[in-house]
Amino acid sequence: MVDNVRELRPRIPDTEKITINLGYVDLGQVDLMVQEGFYSNRTDFIRTAIRNQLERHADVVKQSTVRKGLDLGVRNYSREDLEAARRAGEMLHINVLGLATIAQDVTPELAGATIASVSVLGALHATPAVKAALSDRTR
Predict the structure, then answer these.
(1) Per its UniProt record, what Gene3D superfamilies does this chain match (predicted)?
(2) What is the C-alpha to C-alpha distance for residues 66 and 75, in angstroms, rounded to an integer?
(3) What is each CA distance from 33 to 18, 25, 42, 59, 105, in whole angstroms?
(4) Ordered strands of the 115-125 beta sheet
(5) What is the structure's pLDDT at 13?
């Protein structure tokens, strides 16, 4: 057994947990579809329904993404990125559809000095202290 193996970078989860409320009849119909073998479980049904709706509205999503200047996917902001922005005298505007991650070693002071605005449609991963420091510029 190897005892000295360490993870260099923490693994970023590829999903975010959400909670929804459904009426009893809707939930019963989902359960019936699962019971009849159309879906493996409730989550499979819900994911499929969401994907179908996103596909149905793909043109609108694409146009809005372009119009709003959103970075699509996963965008990581490292301490080095923020330090480079500070040296250049630039302020960053984080505008992401997907996942925006601010590295764990970024201090609240560095984030506050280099990030002008944060707009994330999806999820923002950062330390609680960094999120607090950016709370007045987060939409």
Answers:
(1) Met repressor-like
(2) 16
(3) 21, 12, 9, 29, 46
(4) 71-77, 92-102, 115-125
(5) 67
